[in-house]
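Hey L., structure's done. Input below.
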Amino acid sequence: MNPVIHSCQLSILMNSSPKSMTTAITILLILLGFVARLVPHPANVAPIAAIAIFGGLYLPARYSIILPLTGLFLSDLVIGLYSLPIMLAVYGGFAVTGGLALVARRRKSLGTVVGATLGGAVIFYLLTNGAVWAFGTMYPHTLSGLFESYRMAIPFFRNSLIGDFFYVSILVGAYEMVTLTVRRLRQQSAEEQA
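Output:
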């Protein structure tokens, strides 16, 4: 990379206001959620839960719910809306994931981020497949029908785990790396000026 361009990019990062950075990150995350659901991908391998986790960890609290649900809703408008009770379960699952990220934020560590990601995926799986059983017609409304709904959804749950951990690793890892780099550069700059 051209050293002048690299220097300019780092200067922008180091001197940007927190509000302008939050706005830029917000727009990028909504676009990521929207676009990633429109391009071909394995079922349930999408960044929506990771966006909820990221928002809960790093952005103002309300963003942990607003960001993923906005990207989800905008892409649903293009892909197509479906059964309202099932949609509410899907949206609720991602909202709960954002809530788990807010809890993880209090003591942010690798363990709490992994816990929030795993917990969010499990809750999403239970809520959405319970809703498919309760409000859909694919399974009999019996206890064995509920278990069948959960059993048949295991491949989707596996994909959710893969996608959630992949996208959380990318988003959180990149943010932590940039934050660490900016912090070091600011420290070097302060030492040079002293």
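The domain at 20-193 is CATH 1.10.1760 (Arp2/3 complex 21 kDa subunit ARPC3). Helices lie at 3-15, 18-38, 48-58, 63-79, 84-106, 110-135, 143-152, 154-193.

-- N.
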